[in-house]
Design goal:
UDP-galactose 4-epimerase, domain 1, 10 helices, alpha/beta, 312 residues, 12 strands, Rossmann fold
Length: 312
């Protein structure tokens, strides 16, 4: 049984991670910062809850000293591109400073056996896609740069202090439980449920992204956490889609069809992002799902959520 620390435990990915760790019988230490709504089917009493901020070094030192986790999943981040444009300082302090705090506390107080750091395809910045794990990290816009820095800092601690750090670079993650209604999948599904046009920030066509279903992300994280060596791994289905493709897939599942409202106001975003996911497959991991199965499960999750939460 692992003693597993999860930062960002009440975020979209964090809630799924906690759920799977509990299913495996692990002891979970969950760090919660904001008053996030619990959207997954586990209970507060099943975890060791610590409320605090990863920007607070003393708080993290306390957590590591108290629990001595043997595995750490660092998922906490300011993950909204638009918010990063509006407030780059908070984004950098959270994503970069928070990662430094966590890794330094792990180095001094905890000495876990495995640390998994959530990076992103955004860390590659404006490099030519598809990206493999050797593509330079070249984030230029605030959010992208914060992920490049997070990634490089993790590599620095790994190499300088011989720490057991693995880095996961994912595309756009979708699935039930993402309650940021400005995200593509939640807005596409909610528009169908509400019977209205979807609001699209971009032109809907030119920005291509690599979408991957949340349960495959969790299984990849856990797969790498069980390896006996450090890794850097892209997680991808290997195909890009634009927002109109996402809306079409959702409308096909829901059988609701409205033409979207194209606002075309997105700025400071990379046009094409696509990951080469062959390396992690060469290690023995393969996705359980695919895009179509993920869409089906995601739509079902949200429709059930809306039915349970009248007045959403």
């Amino acid at each position: 049984m692992n003693n597993a620390l999860v930062t960002g435990a009440f975020g979209f990915v964090g809630q799924w991670m906690v759920k799977e760790l509990l299913n495996r019988g692990d002891n979970v230490i969950a760090i919660k910062h904001e008053n996030s709504k619990l959207a997954n089917d586990w209970k507060i009493q099943d975890i060791n809850l610590e409320e605090g901020d990863i920007r607070n070094y003393d708080f993290l030192a306390y957590v590591f000293e108290k629990y001595r986790p043997n595995v750490v999943f660092h998922l906490a981040a300011q993950a909204l591109v638009e918010e990063a444009l509006k407030d780059p300082y908070t984004t950098m302090i959270t994503n970069v400073g928070g990662t430094i705090n966590l890794l330094d506390c792990a180095r001094i107080y905890g000495k876990p056996e495995r640390i998994i750091v959530a990076s992103s395809d955004k860390a590659y910045g404006n490099e030519s896609a598809p990206y493999d794990e050797n593509t330079p990290l070249n984030g230029r816009f605030p959010y992208d740069c914060s992920k490049s820095c997070t990634d490089l800092i993790s590599q620095s601690y790994r190499d300088t202090y011989n720490m057991p750090i693995s880095i996961m670079r994912c595309g756009n993650i979708f699935g039930g439980g993402d309650l940021n209604w400005n995200s593509v999948f939640p807005e596409a599904i909610k528009s169908c449920y509400d019977g209205r046009p979807m609001e699209i920030r971009s032109d809907g066509k030119s920005m291509l992204r690599d979408y991957i279903y949340i349960e495959d992300i969790i299984s990849a994280y856990l797969f790498v956490a069980e390896l006996d060596h450090n890794e850097i791994a892209n997680i991808s289905y290997g195909k890009t889609r634009n927002v109109l493709d996402i809306l079409e897939a959702v409308q096909e599942k829901t059988r609701v069809c409205f033409s979207p409202k194209i606002n075309n106001v997105a700025k400071c975003e990379i046009d094409v992002q696509c990951l080469d996911g062959n390396h992690i497959r060469s290690l023995g991991w393969n996705p359980e799902y695919n895009f179509d199965k993920g869409v089906s499960k995601t739509v079902d999750w949200y429709y059930n959520y809306f039915e349970r939460n009248v007045g959403h």
